[in-house]
Amino acid sequence: xxxxxxxxxxxxxxxxxxxxxxxxxxxxxxxxxxxxxxxxxxxxxxxxxxxxxxxxxxxxxxxxxxxxxxxxxxxxxxxxxxxxxxxxxxxxxxxxxxxxxxxxxxxxxxxxxxxxxxxxxxxxxxxxxxxxxxxxxxxxxxxxxxxxxxxxxxxx
Amino acid sequence: xxxxxxxxxxxxxxxxxxxxxxxxxxxxxxxxxxxxxxxxxxxxxxxxxxxxxxxxxxxxxxxxxxxxxxxxxxxxxxxxxxxxxxxxxxxxxxxxxxxxxxxxxxxxxxxxxxxxxxxxxxxxxxxxxxxxxxxxxxxxxxxxxxxxxxxxxxxx
Lengths: 156, 156
Hints:
The structure is a homodimer.
Chain A: E1 2-7, E2 17-18, E3 21-26, E4 33-38, E5 44-45, E6 48-50, H1 57-69, E7 71-82, E8 87-91, E9 96-98, E10 101-111, E11 119-125, H2 137-147, E12 154-155
Parallel strand pairs in A: 2-9, 3-10, 7-12
Antiparallel strand pairs in A: 1-8, 3-6, 4-5, 4-11, 7-10, 8-9
C-alpha cells in the first residue's frame, strides 16, 4: 500500500526506485473518458498499473484496463511519457518510487463494464464533468493530454 | 558486463528484471545518423543507457548521448517504445533483463564529437552506409524507425 504521495515537496524523501507503470486514456466514440474510482483512496483515476516482467508495454496496458474496468481495448497511440523525479511515492517498506508512467491512448473494442477489488466504480465520463471529480493532478494532466488527440506525445 | 544476448531463442532463460533504458536516433541536417562503435563488443549502435533514479527520460537521453558522443542534443520526438520479452540479456550475476527501451528522436545543438570508455568511435553515418556496419538487429530496427520522421511512434 502507498504510504504517501509527494509532488514537488521539499520534505519529500529522495527516490530510490524506478518502476515501469502503464496507464490508458480510453475514449469512446462520444468522446467520453473511461474512469475508475479507486478502492484504496476513493480518488478518480484512469486505469493502469505496473508492467510485469514477461509482457510488452501495450500488453500490460490492455491487461490492466481489462482487470480494472472489464473492458477490452485497442491501443491507438501514445499520450505521453511521464517521469518527473519531483513526484515520488513513499511506501511502508522504505521504497521511494519515482514517477515513471507510460500513458497510451485507446478505444474500447469489447467486454462489459465491471468494477474490481481495485476499482469500486467504473464510468464513462464526459470531459465537461471532469472538474467535479476528485483526482490527483497527475491523473488530470494525462487526461487533458489524452483529449488532445492530434497533438504530439508529451515527453518528460 | 552482459553475459549473453538472446532474441526469440527457445533456449533463452526467462526474464526476471525490467530496467528502463533510453536511446536516441540523432539526425543532423544532412540526414546522417549519429552512431558509436561500442567498446565492449565492437558492434555499431545508437547512443543510450539506463535511466537513473532522479532524472527524467529526456534528461537521461541527453546525458547518455553527451557521455558517449560528446554532443549536446535537443529532443524532437519519440521513435518508439521497445519492450519485447522475447529479447533478453543475461548477466553474470543471474539477472535476466527483458528489453525495455524508450528511443527518442533528436538533433545536435552543440558539443564536439568525442569517444568515451564505452564508445571507441563516434561517427555521423549516411543511411545508405548502414548495411555495411555490423550491428544488432534491435539497433537497426530503431534506426529504421527513426529515419521515418513523419510516421507514428512504434509501440510494442
